């Protein structure tokens, strides 16, 4: 039982005693004293009323303290919630610049290669095999040691600083077929779920309007010039008001 509930119960008990004493006063026809240390009914009622008022004051203090604590908790929680939402949003957006590279061999003489070695191997593929001679910047390059091997080695997760660099790798990924290297987008779990919902729309469009050009850009579906997203808040697919023209449009702006 909480403090507030205990105080309320005490007030109810005191009020019941007052009512009982009032009934006694009405029913008595003489000045008989009740056995409470020689005090008459009026004195006892007066004392009880004083105690009730004190209890009510204590109750108001407890409720005020509770409201203050609750208000501080709500304020603190809302700040954390907003910060976590912002952080998750930033993390999810960073996945949009990420790719998984399969088939880049790791050193056979060591179980775990150094990060510098992994970056050097990725740069070599970009420069030698994809003819991307400029200095490509990365947020992170990590070989993923958990999970099974694929194409004889562990995959590498590459997060590019520029979204355009990632898109260029995707456009040129067919150039890596003869190197037995595969490239695919490294999507977050939430993005995969959004894309799965959009795949249903793409199948419907393709079956009814086969002349339409449909393709994915991360977790967005492009149908000719229209851009569709899956809204997790409403659990519905929505068409964005903006249209996409040409291959230079950055979909992160949508």
Q: What's the number of structural domains?
A: 3
Unreliable runs, pLDDT <50, ≥5 residues?
29-35
Overall radius of gyration: 36 Å
Largest sheet: 4 strands, antiparallel
Gross geometry: elongated
Continuous helix count = 5
Strand content: 15-25%
Helix content: 40-55%
Structure write-up:
This protein is an alpha+beta fold and 254 residues long. The protein has 3 domains: 3-94; 96-185, 2-Layer Sandwich (Alpha-Beta Plaits), CATH 3.30.70.1820; 189-253, no CATH class. It contains 5 helices and 8 strands, in the order ααβαββαβαββββ. The strands form 2 sheets. It has a 4-stranded antiparallel beta sheet. It has a 4-stranded antiparallel beta sheet with strand order 5-6-7-8, covered by helices on one side. It is elongated. Residues 29-35 have low confidence and may be disordered.
Task: Summarize this structure as a short list of keywords or feature phrases.
single chain, 254 residues, alpha+beta, Alpha-Beta Plaits, 4-stranded antiparallel sheet, 8 strands
Question: What's this, in brief?
Answer:
By secondary structure, the protein is an alpha+beta fold. The protein contains five helices and eight strands. The protein folds into three domains: 3-94; 96-185, L1 transposable element, RRM domain (Alpha-Beta Plaits); 189-253, no CATH class.
Task: Summarize the SSE layout with pairings.
Layout: H1 3-27, H2 41-95, E1 98-102, H3 115-129, E2 138-143, E3 156-160, H4 163-171, E4 182-185, H5 189-208, E5 214-217, E6 220-223, E7 226-231, E8 236-243
Helix pairs in contact: 1-2
């Amino acid at each position: 039982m909480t403090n507030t509930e205990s105080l309320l119960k005490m007030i109810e008990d005191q009020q019941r005693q007052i009512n009982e004493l009032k009934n006694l006063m009405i029913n008595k026809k003489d000045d008989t004293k009740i056995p409470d240390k020689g005090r008459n009914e009026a004195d006892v009622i007066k004392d009880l009323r004083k105690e009730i008022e004190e209890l009510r004051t204590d109750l108001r203090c407890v409720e005020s303290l509770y409201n203050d604590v609750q208000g501080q908790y709500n304020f603190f929680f809302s700040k954390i919630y907003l910060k976590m939402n912002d952080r998750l949003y930033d993390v999810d957006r960073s996945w949009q610049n990420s790719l998984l590279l399969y088939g880049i061999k790791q050193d056979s003489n060591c179980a775990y290669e150094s990060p510098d070695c992994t970056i050097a191997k990725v740069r070599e593929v970009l420069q030698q095999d994809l003819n991307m001679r400029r200095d490509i910047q990365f947020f992170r390059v990590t070989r993923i040691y958990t999970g099974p091997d694929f194409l004889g080695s562990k995959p590498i997760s590459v997060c590019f600083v520029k979204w355009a660099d990632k898109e260029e790798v995707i456009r040129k990924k067919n150039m890596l077929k003869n190197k037995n290297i595969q490239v695919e987008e490294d999507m977050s779990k939430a993005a995969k779920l959004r894309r799965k919902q959009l795949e249903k729309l793409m199948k419907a469009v393709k079956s009814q309007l086969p002349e339409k050009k449909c393709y994915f850009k991360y977790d967005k579906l492009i149908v000719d010039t229209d851009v569709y997203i899956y809204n997790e808040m409403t659990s519905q697919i929505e068409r964005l008001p903006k249209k996409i023209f040409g291959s230079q449009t950055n979909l992160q702006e949508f």
